[in-house]
Amino acid sequence: MKSSQITRRELLMQATTGLVGWALLHSPLLAHAFPSRAGEVLVPFLDQPPKPSSSQANLLDWSHLDSWMTPNDKFFRVSHYNMPEV
Q: Nearest-5° angle of CA 45, CA 51, CA 56?
């Protein structure tokens, strides 16, 4: 039985290739590799809550998003506690 020696350079190359492959598989950029096809229909969200009555709430309507980036005017935050006085 012959034992093969792996060099440090080969080990680093294989480890780097494996890490890059793993990172690409878990990347949201992979979704761009498979764009929507002709005839596909967007499934609407059926559980959207009714619009809030107060004008302070800035809730995001998921059905109107057309990009991976959320525009500044559509960005919102939720606060369950009062804001502290500074």
A: 130
